[in-house]
Design goal:
Elements (H helix, E strand, L loop, with lengths): L7 H13 L2 H10 L6 E17 L6 E16 L4 E7 L3 H14 L5 H29 L14
Antiparallel strand pairs: 1-2, 2-3
Length: about 150
C-alpha cells in the first residue's frame, strides 16, 4: 500500500503546485493528517543559488538572467517513499513540508488527502490569479482598424 506507480508527469505537476503553496497552508494541512508517517530527514533544508535563464520573446537564444535563491530538502518515510522539496527563496520549513508532501503524495492511502488539502486549493488560486491577469489585460486592449478614405481608388 506504500508506493503506487504514478507517472513522472503527474508527480511533476503535483510538485509544481506544492512548491507554490504558502507555508501556513502546508503546515495546517500537515497537522490535519491523522496518521502521518514518521519522517527521516535525508537532507536538512539548505539554501543555495541557481542560475535563472531567460529568452527574449520566448523564442530567442537563452541567456543568463541572474542567480536566484532556492531552498532544498529531502525526506524518507519508513515505508520507502522519498520526497524532495525545492522552492524559490529562503524558507527551510516550507522546503521541508514540500518534501514531506511529495513523499506523502506517492502513497495511495494519502494521495487524495494531499490533493484535497494542498494541491487543489493552490491550483484554484493560480487559476484565479491567471483569470484576474487576463481580465486586467483585456481591459487595456486596443482594437486598431483601418478606415477606407473616400478619395482612395
Amino acid at each position: 500500500m506504500s508506493n503506487v506507480p504514478a507517472s513522472t508527469d503527474e508527480r511533476q505537476v503535483a510538485l509544481s503546485f506544492l512548491a507554490r503553496a504558502d507555508v501556513d497552508v502546508l503546515a495546517a494541512a500537515w497537522e490535519a493528517i491523522a496518521n502521518r508517517p514518521a519522517v527521516e530527514i535525508l537532507r536538512q533544508p539548505e539554501f543555495g543559488l541557481v542560475m535563472a535563464r531567460g529568452r527574449i520573446g520566448g523564442g530567442g537564444a537563452p541567456f543568463n538572467l541572474g542567480e536566484v535563491t532556492v531552498t532544498r530538502a529531502a525526506v524518507k518515510f519508513a515505508s520507502g517513499e522519498t520526497g524532495y522539496g525545492h522552492i524559490l527563496g529562503r524558507d527551510r520549513r516550507r522546503a521541508h513540508l514540500v518534501a514531506c508532501f511529495d513523499a506523502l503524495w506517492q502513497r495511495v492511502d494519502h494521495r487524495a488527502d494531499v490533493e484535497d488539502a494542498v494541491i487543489r486549493p493552490v491550483r484554484r488560486q493560480a487559476a484565479d490569479a491567471d483569470a484576474t491577469m487576463t481580465a486586467e489585460t483585456a481591459a487595456t486592449r486596443v482594437n486598431f482598424f483601418t478606415m477606407v478614405r473616400g478619395e482612395d481608388p
